[in-house]
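Milestone 3.1: sequence recovery, worked example.
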């Protein structure tokens, strides 16, 4: 059995922020959508069945937690996973939950 590396309070605050970001079904749906690659806010809204203003809030939470990144082209904002390990973490959660 492996041990957990000691963390600072600051580290644990960051870990908790990631946990909170993952604690919403719609945000998990966003991660699933982004697993295939970069998408615009409009495309994510359509695929996830969520109005654009609500999607923007979800994306803001995911971005603040460092799970997604964004780039702007004109008036369109595109999102992608910040690191492929985000999917690995989500898959681990799925495995544990099943």
């Amino acid at each position: 059995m492996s041990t957990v590396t000691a963390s600072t309070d600051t580290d644990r605050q960051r870990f908790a922020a990631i946990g909170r970001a993952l604690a919403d079904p719609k945000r998990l749906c966003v991660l699933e959508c982004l697993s295939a690659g970069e998408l615009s806010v409009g495309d994510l809204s359509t695929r996830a069945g969520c109005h654009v203003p609500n999607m923007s809030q979800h994306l803001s939470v995911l971005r603040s937690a460092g799970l997604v990144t964004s780039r702007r082209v004109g008036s369109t904002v595109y999102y992608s996973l910040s690191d492929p390990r985000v999917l690995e973490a989500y898959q681990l959660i799925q495995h544990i939950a099943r």
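The chain has one domain: 9-97. Strands lie at 39-40, 68-73, 76-81.
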